[in-house]
Amino acid sequence: MWIPPACTDVPERSMTSSVRTNLVSLDVEHMASLVERLGWPAYRTRQILQWIYQHRIRDIGGMSNLSLTDRETLGREAVIERLASPTLFQSADGTKKFLLSLKDGLTVESVLIPDGERLTQCVSTQVGCTLDCGFCVTGQMGLKRNLKAHEIVDQILTAQDQLRPGDRISSLVFMGMGEPLANFDELSEALTRLTDTEWGVGFPKRRITISTAGFSGRLHDVAGLGVNLAVSLNASTSEQRDRLMPMMNRLHPLPDLLAACRAYPIPANRDLTFEYVLLQGENDAADDAVRLSRLLRGIRCKVNLIPFNEFPDSPFRRPADPVIAAFRKILRHKGYDVFVRQNRGRDVLGACGQLGTLPGKTVASHSIGP
Ligand code: SAH
Asked: Cα separation of 12 and 18, whole Å?
């Protein structure tokens, strides 16, 4: 029986053969259909998924709990076609940026950020972005296309392939290229594969954060995913948000966004996170900090201040350190937990808002791969 796709990550035919199915493009229902069509017992679905997501094999021949005959049968039907080896950019601060080539020739970036014992991966959900936020390189590229679930998951599998023995990724943040909630179905399917403990990557949901520029109508769907939510507010008035994030604020004006945040069911022992990019002379005044504290009143949250990461030809500037410290101090006095995000990976254009390419600009120096 053919089960209709749960997501648009529909079975993909391999490049190397016009008839073979790419196993990484199948969701669990499609994998089960394939197993059923081959006349195999249902538990084989789990075994195949485990090989892909837990052992990260790239060759059906390596599925050693399938008989040789079954591996040959599967090999005639299907392949495991992961993304090609990434080009790596190594920052002086230890951050690694991965440039991944997709099948259609487009590229997408992902960043691995070590911090003491912790290792955070910043994951992309679109090539380019739906939105047009003026302070973000990805926003200047326009939207090339949404990533498929398997292209999202492959960013994590690829990073895991690169880790030294004993290292592991401690958190995933969907803060790379694109607007995650504008690609919700693929994001949700990717999260299923990343968090399933029986056959998937097994990543704990509480260590995953989705960051949105403010698709307020989607917030209740995010709540159902069981992961953490971060909202990029970036402005203390509607006028400011109109100027800095025009498309977003037109689609979901600031008052609607704040109402959706107030209604958001924040799980016990967790906080909502608000991100606020600090732009010199735009939104970094003491008055902004006071207004921001009023906007957030009554919401259980913490605030992440992100000093602007500069990129070529950008009209914006990063505020001076004392201005950042003063902004933080005001919010702290108002009772908020406030963190200033370290601008990691700036030398390889791997920091927040620096992912992507502008016409005529080179991506970054210090390539050390593929
Ligand atoms: N579209 C999502 C996720 C991608 S951006 C969102 O907007 O949340 C991730 C974070 O980086 C957001 O908080 C965004 O406001 C911030 N950001 C974008 N460009 C930046 C830049 N040049 N410098 C610092 N932070 C930036």
From this structure: 10
| Token reading at 19 | 């008839």
Per residue in 147-179, pLDDT (tens digit) is 999 999 999 999 999 999 999 999 999 999 999
The closest residue, in CA terms, to atom 19 on ligand 1 is: 353
Run of H or E residues at 100? strand 96-101
Residue nearest to atom 5 of ligand 1 (CA): 175
Q: Residue type for 204, please?
A: P
pLDDT tens digits, residue range 223-239? 999 999 999 999 999 99
Q: Which residue has the tokens 């069911």?
A: 265
Q: What's the whole-model pTM score?
A: 0.93
Determine the residue type at 272: L
Residues with CB under 6 Å of ligand 1 are 135-136, 175, 179, 211-213, 232, 234, 275, 277, 306, 308-309, 352-353
Ligand 1 pocket, mutate which of 147, 229, 232 (most atoms under 8 A from CB) = 232
Q: How far apart are CA 95 and CA 132, in angstroms?
A: 26
In the chain the domains, ranked by start, together with CATH numbers, are 21-79 (1.10.150.530), 87-366 (3.20.20.70)
Q: Is 109 a catalytic residue?
A: yes
Distance 136 CA to ligand 1 centre (A): 6
Residues with Cβ within 8 Å of 160's Cβ and at least 6 positions away in sequence, in order, are 56, 168, 169, 201
| Residues 125, 176 contacting (CB under 8 angstroms) | yes
Going by alpha carbons, the residue nearest to atom 13 of ligand 1 is 232
> Ligand 1 mean position to 354 CA, how many Å?
9
